[in-house]
Each structure stands twice: as C-alpha cells, then as structure tokens.
Design goal:
about 70 residues; mainly alpha
C-alpha cells in the first residue's frame, strides 16, 4: 500500500468515526438545561439594560437617511 492510499484510508476511517460520534444525540438533564437557561437570561437581561452607544445611533441615523427614512425596508 502506498503512502497516499494509506492517508486516504486513515482519513476515511477518521471521518466515519467522527460522523458516528456526532450522530449520537447528546442530552442534558433538565436541571442543567434550566441552569444554563437562567444564566443566559441573566446575561441577556443585563445586556439589554445597557444604553445604545452613540456611534451605533449615528450609524442607524445614517442608514435611515440613506434609505430615505423608510421603516422596514430591506
């Protein structure tokens, strides 16, 4: 067997084993899911309390002017 054929065979075996591992459906218990959800909510709530930076407002104003002030245009 040549080196190239050996490399191809090794890649094929690796890809197959990785696909098999990814095909299994990982599960978290409900306590872990709740804890993760609570932490994400807390982080998101904190983020939503922060003011929008002035430079973002300026960019949004520029986009509104560029679009002719149309709302919801895409």
């Amino acid at each position: 067997m040549t080196v190239d054929k050996g490399n191809k065979l090794a890649r094929a075996i690796l890809e197959t084993s990785v696909k098999d591992k990814l095909a299994t459906d990982p599960k978290l218990d409900s306590g872990s899911q709740k804890r993760i959800g609570d932490q994400l909510r807390a982080m998101y709530d904190e983020l939503m309390q922060q003011p929008v930076p002035d430079r973002f407002r300026d960019l949004l104003d520029q986009l509104d002017k560029k679009n002719g002030g149309k709302e919801g245009s895409q």
